[in-house]
Design a protein that fits this description.
The protein is of the alpha+beta class. Helices cover about 45% and strands about 20% of the residues. The chain has 5 helices and 7 strands. It has a 4-stranded antiparallel β-sheet. The chain has a 3-stranded antiparallel β-sheet with strand order 1-3-2, with no helix packed on it. The longest helix is centred in the first third of the chain and has 44 residues, at about 30-75.
């Protein structure tokens, strides 16, 4: 026996909601199913608490690092350093620990990327006899789109690193540069501990999957 329940209503005593939102009397639920429900619920609640703690720690750490950068800048008479911006690495006095703060920017390309593709295609056409199949494959791969119609940013930027001295190619690379727009950023904090007396550092994993 089960009774449909509106998600906005409180679950009455003696019942539990199933995965379709229907009320099921507790005495009709198998003990193993009740035990599984208790286990999963308790662990997920614990995981949420850990997540909140990590978020609070990251927020506090970001604030402390930004404040320290401002403090360090003030020693040289520099004010309004913008402590929350830019990549930075901090070491403990004995070099045992280090903290890296890095800023990753999210890039998108506007319609000028299509202009760049046309220019690149013109280059390929002009180089047909002398160009290598590897370069043509690299370029075709760079402009491929995923299922959402987005290009791979790293592959596009990889074209700009090719040392090709051709006026039209350089014009295409400029079009790529002009097409780039920063639409957001994300800040990462990474903590490391030196391995013994070596110059190698091991990350202090905060990702549960890495533990």
């Amino acid at each position: 026996m089960s009774v449909d329940i509106d998600e906005r209503q409180a679950i009455p005593d003696g019942f539990k909601a199933d995965n379709k939102g229907r009320l099921v009397p507790v005495d009709l639920i198998k003990p193993i199913d009740m035990a599984r429900d208790d286990l999963v619920s308790d662990l997920v609640i614990g995981a949420k608490l850990v997540k909140e703690h990590i978020e609070d720690f990251k927020s506090a750490a970001m604030g402390d690092i930004g404040a320290f950068i401002e403090l360090s800048a003030e020693k040289y008479g520099v004010k309004k350093m913008g402590g929350s911006k830019g990549n930075v690495t901090l070491y403990s006095f004995d070099g045992r620990y280090k903290i890296q703060r890095s800023i990753a920017e999210f890039l998108v390309f506007d319609e000028r990327l299509q202009v760049a593709k046309v220019l690149v295609d013109e280059c390929i056409h002009a180089w047909t006899e002398g160009s290598s199949s590897q370069i043509r494959a690299l370029i075709d791969h760079a402009f491929q789109v995923d299922k959402e119609g987005k290009v791979n940013t790293s592959r596009i930027l990889g074209l700009k690193r090719l040392d090709i001295k051709d006026a039209k190619w350089r014009e295409a690379m400029q079009a790529i540069t002009d097409a780039m727009q920063v639409v957001g950023s994300k800040t990462y904090l990474r903590f490391y501990e030196r391995m013994g007396e070596s110059d190698q550092y091991e990350p202090i994993a905060l990702d549960m999957a890495a533990l």
